[in-house]
Amino acid sequence: MAFHHFPFWFNKKVSFYKLMGTGKNGTFDKNPDWQQWSIITVLKGEADLKDYTGIENDTAFIQKYYGSFISGWFRFFGCTTSTLLMEAIESHGFWDKKRVFGNLPPKSEYEGPIAVITRATIRLNKLKFFWENVAPVAAHMATANGFRFSIGVGELPLIKQATFSIWDSKAAMKAFAYGMKEHAEVIQKTRKQDWYSEDMFTRFKIIQVLGSIKMNGDAATIVAPAST
Fold it and tell me: Does domain 2-222 have CATH number 3.30.70.100?
């Protein structure tokens, strides 16, 4: 997948990207899934969001915005792909010292279906504490009310980690994040013990789902209403 850096370096439609591996169990995981990979991109031109919507299928989207090299690579190796087009609505923190999704408020009025990226660069002297604490919490996520999907991704094994998750509502996500005792305790530990040299938390409205992403329930129900 490292070959994909080259076309992205010259892609004028993308302002930020990450090529990442994934964990096996839907969240932070020391064991990589060698058959699954993730690309996160920020497409340029907020005012041109309509240009990105309405594309009929995942293959056409990848061809148009990622280019012929990457789309041809996926076809050659017979890859199954899924793409979620999202609009960032709330964020705090940094990724590579950048506010990659722009200057967003930490909170908004939106309450519909929501996707979340939580990522961090873990301090080397805190790795042991991080991995001891996150595994038990991650095991409970899939059973939480309103949970639809999650995947653990990482740009650097063990150190630079992220979780992407989808929820029926912001309330459902908050109930898991702050209502579950074990998770709330881990959040407190990260702050008191200064586990991260950098972190970021961003919430999104899901505009369109392309491809065959596997989740709890119908994927169409997570798409944000056009009026919100």
Answer: yes
Sequence spans of domains, the chain: 2-222
- CA–CA separation, 133 vs 189, rounded Å? 9
Q: What is the CA radius of gyration of the chain?
A: 17
Tens digit of each residue's pLDDT (9 = 90 or more) over 152-199: 898 887 899 899 999 999 999 988 888 777 778 888 888 889 999 999
Spatial contact of 174 and 107, defined as CB atoms under 8 Å apart: no
Is 196 strand, coil or helix?
strand
- Secondary structure of 97-130 in the HEC alphabet? CECCCCCCCCCCCCCCCEEEEEEEEECHHHHHHH
Alpha helices in the chain (DSSP H): 5-9, 49-52, 58-65, 68-76, 127-141, 170-179, 181-192
- Tokens representing residue 191 in the block: 């702050």
